[in-house]
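Forum: Protein Structure Q&A
Topic: Joint prediction for protein chains with partners

I've read a bunch of threads here and the consensus seems to be that you should model interacting components together rather than docking separate models afterwards. I'd like to see that in practice. Below is the full input, 756 residues plus whatever partners are listed. Could one of the regulars post the assembled result?
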Amino acid sequence: MNLIKTALLGTAIAAAGSTAATADGHACAIDTGRISIIGNEFPAIQSVAALALECAGSAETASNLTADHQTLNVAGMTGNPAEYTSAIVANSSIVALINEDVIQPLDALVAEYGADIPSRQLITVNGQIMAVAFMANSQHLVYRKDVLEQAGLDVPTSYEEVLAAAEKIRADGIMQYPVGGAYAAGWNLAQEFTNMFIGTGGQFFEPGTANVTINNAQGVEALEMMKALTEYMNPDYLTHDSNATSAEWEAGNVALMNMWGSRTGVLMDEEGSTPEVYENTTVAGPLTVGDSGVPATTLWWDGWTLAKNISDEDAVTTFKALTHATSPALLNDGTMSQAVWLMDGFESQPVNEGVLASVAAGSTPYPMVPFQGLLHSALGDNIADFLQGTESAEQTLADVEAAYTAAATEQGFLQ
Amino acid sequence: MKHKAFFWFVLPSVVLMLLFIALPIVSVVTQSLYTQHEQVIISVENCGPFGCTQAQSVDQDATQALRNAEPLGKYVGLDVYKDRNHLAAAEVADAWEDSSSFREFWNTLMNLPFYGALAFTITYTAIVTPMTIILGFAVAIAINSVARSLRGPTIFFSLLPMIVTPLVGALILFWMVDARGILGTALQWLANDPSLSVKASTPLMWIMLMVYGTWSSIPFAFIVYYAGLQTVNQDTLEAAMIDGASRWERIRYVVIPHLAPLTTFIALIQLMDNFRVFEPIISFQAQAHARSLSIAIFTDLGGETRLLSSAAATSVLTIVFVAILLSPVLVRTWRDFGTKN
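Posted by a regular:
Agreed with the consensus. Here's the joint model:
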C-alpha cells in the first residue's frame, strides 16, 4: 500500500516525465496480429479497452465487455487458438485463469516491450508476472452530507455508528430505509459477508490448507451485523445488486451505503439524479465492525492478462496495445476520475478518496487463493436463508461449510 | 411405406439426434462420474499494488502431469451424485435417524440444496402445467366464439405473451411488482400493508413465478387447442344441439374428447419445459427465494470456479426426473397407438 502513496506523492514529478515517454515511445500503430479483450463492464475498463483497440487500429480487433465475463473467459481462452487474447480480470477472477492454466507469464514480454511499466503495476505469482494491474478498487462508505447534517450526525466510521445513524434518520422521519447495500443473493451478498467477516478479524481457512473455518464467533458476528443493517434497507434488498443499489441512491432513497469506488463517479456526476442528491453525495473511508481494528472491506486491483494459447504475433500485438492503453497515455480530463489509476500521472479526484482511504487504512486485499471462489459461491447460495429469518446463523454457516466442502472435494482441493 | 424407404426417410433425423442429443448425454453422464484430480497446492508469494502476501496456488506442472496421465479426471463412480450438494445420501440417512418427527426430517431435507431445488421445481411443474392447459383451453373456446371479423386481432393479442421475449416479459413484470411499481403498490393497497413486498416474501415470489410461468405459456396451449377446435366435426355438434345438449354439455362430451390427443401433446411439452424452469428465476432475481434444478446447474457453471462434474450430475438427475414425469404420458400414448393398430 505504500507503493500507491509513493505514486501519488511522486505524481507531479512523474507527470512531466511520462508525457515525454508517451510521445516518443509506445509504437501505437500496430498493423498485424489480433487483439480480442474480454472483461467486466464499467467506465474505467471501457476506457482501457477502447484505447487498446484504437491503438491496434489496423490489426484484427474485438472486445466483449460484459458483467458475465467470469462465466465466459475460461471457456473463451481454453481453445487453441484462444478466442480472447486478453482477459481483464481482478484479484478474484485471475485465480480461475491460473487454476485452469490458460494465461501465460509476461516476464519475457515485459523485459522486451514493457520497460516503462512501473513495478507496482506488475502482479507476480510465485515470482512470475501474470498480469498488469491498472487500477485499484475497494468498497467504502458513501453518504449524503445533507441528510447527516439534517439529522445532526457525524460521519460514521463503524457499522455500529451506521446503525445508530440509520435509526436517527428513520426516527426523524427523513427516510424510511436510509441504508443501502448490494445484498442481491449470489456474488454480491457473498462479497458483503467477505467484507464483514474480514472486519471481524476472521480467517476463512486454516492457514496453508483448504479447510474452511467460518462457523465460529466471528462468522456469527458478521452475519448478525448484516442482518441488523438489513432492518434499515429497502425490503427488496435481496434483489439489489450494485446497479440497483446505485439506482436507489440516485433516486434519493438512501443516505448511507457501502459501495464500490469504481461506481461512485456515476453517483456524483450530474446524470440520472437531482442536484440535491449528487451535490451531497460524499465518499469516506471503509467502515469497521466490532473492535478488531481491521477495516471491513477488501482491496481489489483490475488488470489485464495474456492468453496462453495464442500465436507469438498476437501476444505481442495484445501486449503492446494494452501496455499503451494502461500507460499515462490513457489519462485525460475524461478518464482521470473514472478510477484510482495505478500508472504515473494519476491525480486523485474527490471521488477517489474512498478507495485511497481504504488503502491507507491498511485494508486486506481480497484473498487470491485457488479455493476462495468456491467459498464465495457457497456463501452466495446460503446467506439469504439467515437474512430472511428461516434459520439460525450457526445453521447457515454450517450449510456454507458443508456446501463448500462438497465442492472443494469435487475440485480436488480437499481429500 | 416400405421399410427401406422408411429407413432412408428417417435416417437424417436419426443421425442428427444421435449427434446432437444422444452423444452429449453420453458425455454428460461420463463427466458426472469423474472429478478433478487432486490439486497439487504450493505456497507462493503474490505481489501487487498492495504489497506482497503469502497465498496458495495450484502447481500447474505437477497437476498437468496428473491430467495428462488421466485426461478424464479422477474416476469416482457415483460419489458426486451422493455428495451433499446432490442426493446427499449420508445427510438424508442421518436426518432420518436423528429426527424426532417427520416435520423435523422434512425441514432438514428442504435445507439440502438439491431437495430444496427439487421441491420448487416439482411444485412449479405441478401447478403451472394444469393451469396452462385449463386456461389455454378456455381462451381457445372464448376466441372461437368471437365474431369472425374480430378474431384476427384477438388472436394476435392472445399470442403476445409468447411473442414478447421471455426475459423482457419477465423484466416488465419484475418492475411492475416492485414495491414502488404499479402492481406492487396496488397489492399494498389491497392488503392494506405498506411494507408488503413481493420480492421480499418467499410465498409471494413463488406465486409470482407461477403466475408468470402460466401467463407466458398459455398462448402455446391456446394456439394448439384453437387449431384443434377448427377440426371438430360440425355435424356431431349440431346433432348434440338437436338432442338438447347445452353449451357446456357440448364442450364436455364432444369437444373435450375430440381434443384429448392434443392435451396429451401439450402436457408432454409443458411438463418438460416447466421442469426446466430457468428464465423466470433469473429475471425476477428470485434466487434467494426459489431455486430450480436448472438454476443449480447454472450457478455451478457460473461461479469463478466451474463445477463441471457437479453440473453434469445435476443434469443427469434432471433427465432422470423428466423421464419419470413423462412416463405416464408416454405409456398412455403408446397404449393409444396400440389400440389404433
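Residues 196 and 222 of chain A are 5 Å apart (CA to CA).
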